[in-house]
Amino acid sequence: RRSFPICTPVxxxxxxxxxxxxxxxxxxxxxxxxxxxxxxxxxxxxTFRAYSWESDEISFGYGQNWEWVERVTGLPINNLMRxxxxxxxxxxxxxxxxxxxxxxxxPSFSIPSLRLYELIHEAIGLALAKQDVATSLQPCPACKxxxxxxxxxxxxxxxxxxxxxxxxKLAGAAMKKSKKAVLxxxxxxxxxxPGFDAKSFKNDLVGALSDIVGxxxxxxxxxxxxxxxxxxxxxxxxxxxxxxxxxxx
Length: 249
Known about the structure:
The protein is of the alpha/beta class. It is 31% helix and 26% strand. Strands 1, 2, 3, 4, 8, 9, 10, 11, 12 and 13 form a ten-stranded mixed β-sheet that branches.
């Protein structure tokens, strides 16, 4: 592994950069994903990381009403984490979570959002197949449903990853796309995948993602500036202004 400074130009072969796994609280997890998204245009390369949660937490989508989420979950807003991406309620702690970013000047940025969603879940399905877990993709509905999603794993949408019989949702994701980059935050519910081998799965998934973005995977270290920059974002995501009103201060 080698350090990859963000603040100065570095000329290397094109790569899919794989950052080390971390286990953090909700604000730090969101702050790290946002740091990757914010730095994507400077790095000019796709980036990926897998991570876990220090304890059981619930996140909810950017567009969801926090008071509704409080009522549904029975938790106060201080114990809930709003994501910078869309989607519905997700329960963390027994899941495998990941983040993928694509910079605006990279060819992979042009992949249509639904197609990217499908490709990622196909890649997860291929990686799970190597652990003898058969999967299927949720068909797209004839009519796009109106409104904001409720509970992510109780309300599958088109191209979600399902069990082979299509009855149980295994993986979902949400995206944010700006002119500068794409942010994908996704999760896999491990409760329906007994004997999950996280190390082998990650290696297989990274290989499949490399094919999607057209770059060779390269493991890199977090740069020296990472923690100080990430912690600023984490503080913003921890604030009530963000959790309630989607304002990062």
